[in-house]
Specification:
Number of helices: 0
Largest sheet: 5 strands, antiparallel
Distance between the termini: 34 Å
Order of helices and strands: EEEEEEEEEE
Strand order of the largest sheet: 6-5-8-9-10
Strand content: 35-45%
Number of strands: 10
Radius of gyration: 15 Å
Helix content: under 10%
């Protein structure tokens, strides 16, 4: 398992790439992630927030996810404003980590959040959202389970853009 740490505004940050199923570690160490696409866009050229990797720590019903995102942030007019975990079976939002500011000079970046109340075998989708002038999903997503690991998948879930919690603004 490859893991990475990045720093920003006193958030603990941990990154891992997906791999075959492995036990959830008690602690995570982090080497650097090499070549990553910055300023990602979809097929039509619309800026997106791509998930790069995820690391999970904790125990059943109380997991912490450390999600690494590469996004086409330009400031408050265009930035990754959240990442979320949704149930594959129901499409319901299980957890959302609000990102309070843009990360123009920090790409990719990692933010942790939890507790995510899932079982180790529960299939979920992890995805990020672009906020600002053109608010939308559309970037790379990860799917899988804590026990089975996570891999890049197609996002087949409905939009959860109006489901709380939602950002209340952008600091910078």
């Amino acid at each position: 398992m490859v893991l990475t740490t990045m720093a920003c505004v006193a958030d603990p940050e941990t990154v891992s790439t997906t791999s075959p199923p492995t036990p959830v570690p008690d602690t995570v160490t982090e080497p650097v992630v090499d070549s990553l696409v910055t300023n990602p866009t979809d097929a039509s050229g619309l800026p997106v927030a791509d998930l790069v990797s995820v690391a999970v720590t904790g125990e059943a019903g109380n997991y912490t996810f450390a999600v690494t995102i590469s996004s086409a942030d330009t400031g408050c007019e265009q930035y990754a404003d959240w990442w979320e975990v949704a149930d594959v079976a129901t499409g319901k939002l299980l957890y959302r980590r609000i990102l309070a500011h843009s990360h123009v000079n920090e790409q990719p970046f990692t933010r942790s959040g939890g507790p995510v109340p899932i079982s180790p075998e529960q299939p979920v989708i992890i995805r990020a959202h672009m906020g600002g002038i053109q608010s939308h999903y559309g970037g790379q997503v990860l799917g899988g389970s804590v026990d089975g690991g996570f891999e890049f998948v197609m996002d087949s879930l409905p939009s959860l853009e109006t489901v709380a919690p939602l950002p209340t603004g952008c600091a910078f």
